Amino acid sequence: MEWGMANRLAQLIQPDGHALFLPIDHGYFQGPTRKLEKPGETIRPLLPYADALFVTRGVLRASVDPGDSKPVILRVSGGTSMVGKDLANEGITTSMEEAVRLNASAVGISVFVGSDYEKESLLNLAKLVDEGERYGIPVMAVTAVGKEMEKRDARYLALACRIAAELGARVVKTYWCQNFEKVTGGCPVPVLMAGGPQVNTELEIFEFVHDGMQNGSIGVNLGRNIWQNDFPVAMIKAIRAVVHENAAPKEAQKIYDGEKGSRAKKS
Description:
Blueprint: H1 3-12, E1 19-23, H2 27-30, H3 39-43, E2 52-55, H4 57-63, E3 72-75, E4 77-78, E5 91-92, H5 96-101, E6 106-111, H6 118-135, E7 139-143, H7 154-166, E8 171-174, H8 181-185, E9 191-193, H9 202-214, E10 219-221, H10 224-227, H11 232-245, H12 249-266
């Protein structure tokens, strides 16, 4: 591996082999997402606890302080929206030269395995990998499922992750699911967890993150589960403890409750 590629990956994946990425790219297809209407204000208190920021170039320029940031994973796919016909019909929206200008540590692109646009999204990934390797910039593939949430099972996600790795992605972001070891066990590159199933409590989030970490994930790429929480700093601190300190779910809950209590007193 060339020095530039290795250096960028080392910025993202910490010395313990784990990583906590904070995605705030949701607006590229959702618009002003709840609690992300003003991205700069949302992320400011969270950045100290994140290892990297997953963001579009527009929000990066407009809302992220270049003097006080973390390594950037640049979202480079898009072209669809929630009100459009098909979320899977994405293209590449940002050039690799732009990623270089913005000093990105990696770029991220969604792939839609099993959709009507499977071929196009996978060829977009392959093209991006070619360009990334040329510039020494790793590509993170996001195994997106669009509106078809029922596809979040181990067999499907294992297929999608393996294909992304075969096409050259250096890292894969996928959803947590039951039997997660089947997903990570068949993927030869690092796997990060996105959100899991719909949950009602913070403990359930800590439980699926912990399960994924015990079953081969190197970390998380969690956004809404953190910044839509009523106490986002407490949430990211607790999740960080699971990712980087191997905290059990109940230990993470104690961290969350303690931080929540102290912040509630201050307010």
